[in-house]
Specification:
single chain, about 90 residues, alpha+beta, HU Protein, Chain A, 2 domains, 3-stranded antiparallel β-sheet, elongated
Length: about 90
């Protein structure tokens, strides 16, 4: 399912217009993005949690040339699945 399919499903299930459903879905994702950008953790009970993980820099290799390159430190979003969702999927 992609974002537009999610919007259509929400509109149909909750008897909303496509435009209103799109506003809800867009606002939901923007709220998660904003919280993560501010270093906050987002938890949706039964579904999972999002947080930002810090990765240290390291020396890596360019796969084409084999030369050593420095990979700088980075912060990336990380999702951990919740217990209920894990159990529901693993039937």
């Amino acid at each position: 399912m992609n974002k537009s399919q999610l919007i259509e499903a929400l509109a149909k299930d909750q008897d909303l217009t496509i435009k209103n459903a799109e506003l809800v879905v867009t606002h939901f994702f923007e709220s998660i993005e904003e919280a993560l950008a501010n270093g906050q953790r987002v938890e949706i009970r039964g579904f999972g949690s999002f947080k930002v993980k810090n990765y240290h820099g390291y020396k890596g290799r360019n796969p084409k040339t084999g030369s050593i390159i420095n990979v700088s430190q980075k912060r990336l979003p990380f999702f951990k699945v919740g217990k209920e969702l894990k159990e529901r999927v693993d039937v």
